[in-house]
Sequence to fold (381 residues):
Amino acid sequence: MIAKFLLAFSLAIVMAVTGVSSYIYLGSRQSKAAAPVQKPTAVSPRAQAYTLPGTIYLAQSGALYSFSAGRFHQLTPEAGWTQPALFPDNSRLVAVKRSGFFSDVYELTPYGTVVSQLTNNAASARNSWDTGANAWSFYPRLSGDQRTLWMSYDGPKYVGANYFDVDLAVWSVPLGGSIGQGRAWTTANNYTGGDVQPIIVPGGIIYTKYGYDENGNRTGQLWFTNRAGSFGKALTPTAASCLQPSLGPDGTSLAMICTYQKQVSDLTIATWNGSSLTGFKTVVADQIVAQPAWAPDGSGIAYLAPGGPAAPFQLWFLPKNAYNPPPPLLVPTPSPSPGGPHNEPIPSPVPSPVPVAPVIKPIQVTFNLGFDATSPLAWSA
Fold:
């Protein structure tokens, strides 16, 4: 009996680590920094630091931080906090708090004070021996009417089932209600990590579904579903391996990252027409991009990426003109030169104006801070 328990316990650890592979996907791609990263609040922004509009919420080393007016503020202790998301009216936050064998969603004020615990994924005291009875919640979001909590969840769990694979599905739960009142909207592919990072769009949800391609490579796809339990439809090809969707404030622009099974992840944007994605355009192709987020005022896209070789993930900003440039500037044409018998201008061929498009590059906002690349950015006006 003791040997059986130890075997189950060991398997739980292995499957808890490997099963939540969708959550740690980009974490595994983070380079190891040569020097320890600094806490955001320990570093004053450089004089030339780029100031972004509004407030961005992000995670580092198990703590949540806000960034506004060029300054960081620590909101929570370093206690497993990650994946902040805003209420639609920006009044509060939802975020995940991780422990060793489960994670829960909490409601917080914008200053990091806990308002309430929204899930209860720890096994009951009498079933604490069964580590498989614990559950995981990740990537919380609130519906537009702020009455429904959306999240990736790997339950319900059955005591004694000895099931340790963590395949997350997208669930909806009444805000403040129990998981028993919730509904599973998607069905995950077994042994992939499942369906993660849902975003709410009119008429349904867009999310990342993990699976395997014909060569056995684990890959991500963006999917759309409009009702609980439906099969849904793929929005991106398997070969592109796209994930981490983010909808722009206009409701039609969608940002994502696509890896194409390579060690870089391109920042890609497309147009969402309510049922499909069109007009795919890669706007950053030379970085390991993670967690794109649109500025509330439409001025650009923030994302996380290493600051250089063997460097941790930093905050970057891509201005709107980089992916939606204004009309090119025209080089002025030369004036005719004076001449002729009466000093009249001599007509000469006039060259056509040459359009000159300015080159807009991403702006590195932070240096040597090391943010959590598995945690989406939340951005309020």
Observations:
- Confidence is low (pLDDT under 50) at residues 1-33.
- Residues 2-19 form the longest helix (18 residues).
- The longest strand covers residues 204-212.
